[in-house]
Amino acid sequence: MSLKTFWHKLGSPRWFYQISAGWIIGFGVAAMVLLLVGTVWGLAFAPADYQQGNSFRIMYVHVPAALVAQSLYLGMGVAGVVLFVWRMKLADVAIGACLPLGMLLTALALFSGGVWGRPTWGTWWEWDARTVSTLVLLFLFIGIFALREAIEDVELRARASALVAIVGTINIPIIKYSVEWWNTLHQGSSLFLTKKPAMPAEMWLPLLVMILGVYCFAGHNVLSRMRIEVLRRERNTQWVKALFTD
Amino acid sequence: MHFESWNEFLTMGGHGLYVWMAYAVTFIVFVGSYVSVRVAARRQVRELTWRSSTDSNVNS
């Protein structure tokens, strides 16, 4: 299938509903295996940090939560552009489906960051560039969520939340470079796309497993929510009715 | 295995409270997210099945 036909078919809720059934199973199984392996590996087998001792093990839940929360927001921004440029209704479904998990993962990143900060920085909360920009991310998620609850008109709700999603993506590079632009308490990045990690393999391998696991979990969660919403929106169409009559 | 004993694993060299708190809340968030999406899916299926059954009753 060419990219162009794929793109056209993606606009069809029916096609999405059919094709995503398999993806969900794949993501779900992968997430379960990866998260189980990563948790046991990170908690019990990875060596302790020479400075932070065992508190550094919080990294294995903190980093993936923060990273995937930001990715979900970026996904909403991309979906917002798709909505405006191609008028694809599925993009609005995607925005709505990213919100609950994005919100929870951002809150989780802030929480695990506080719990990690207490023994490491000596405080639960610090008005640090990284933590503040992540707090802004949480407010953006909550804001779009509230916006969608408040607007009843489907068309207007889609456009308004897409617009906020797009504008808010400016916060993503701010979060990413906050540890370089400002003199922060938050430590710098540990994993890089282009150079070697700032820690030994027995420490970063479980982190990689956890990151992949949380991405797969997000894939499962978001696609599942999208399918539910597609069924709801298409409930009066022939193909949905045919699914539930026997 | 990094730890010598169960006790050492649980106390995490004095950081047990923080480590286990972070992991416990993470666990709750993930299980909660999974359960909520399953419940919503089941509810949607039930509603659509119910609609289709009332539809066919009207038609027949």
Description:
The complex is a heterodimer of chains A (246) and B (60). Chain A is an all-alpha fold. In chain A, 77% of the residues lie in helices and 0% in strands. Chain A has nine helices and no strands. Chain A has helices at 3-10, 13-45, 59-86, 89-121, 129-150, 154-168, 171-181, 201-233, 238-243. In chain A, α3 runs parallel beside α8 (201-233). Chain A is globular, with a radius of gyration of 20 Å. Chain A starts with a helix and ends with a helix. Chain B has 60 residues and is mainly alpha-helical. Chain B is 83% helix and 0% strand. Chain B is built from two helices and no strands. Chain B has helices spanning 6-11, 16-59. The longest helix of chain B is centred in the middle third of the chain and has 44 residues, at 16-59. Chains A and B meet through α2, α3, α4, α8 and α9 of A and α2 of B.
Low-confidence stretches of chain B: none
Q: What is the rounded distance between the termini of chain B?
A: 67 Å
Query: Radius of gyration of chain A, rounded?
Result: 20 Å
Described by strand count, sense and barrel closure, the largest sheet of chain A is:
none
Strand content of chain B: under 5%
How would you describe the shape of chain B? rod-shaped
Helix content of chain A: over 70%
**How large is the share of residues in beta strands of chain A?**
under 5%
Number of strands of chain A: 0
Our Rg estimate of chain B from Cα atoms comes to: 23 Å
Mean pLDDT of chain B: 89
Structural class of chain B: mainly alpha
What is the arithmetic mean of pLDDT of chain A?
Answer: 93
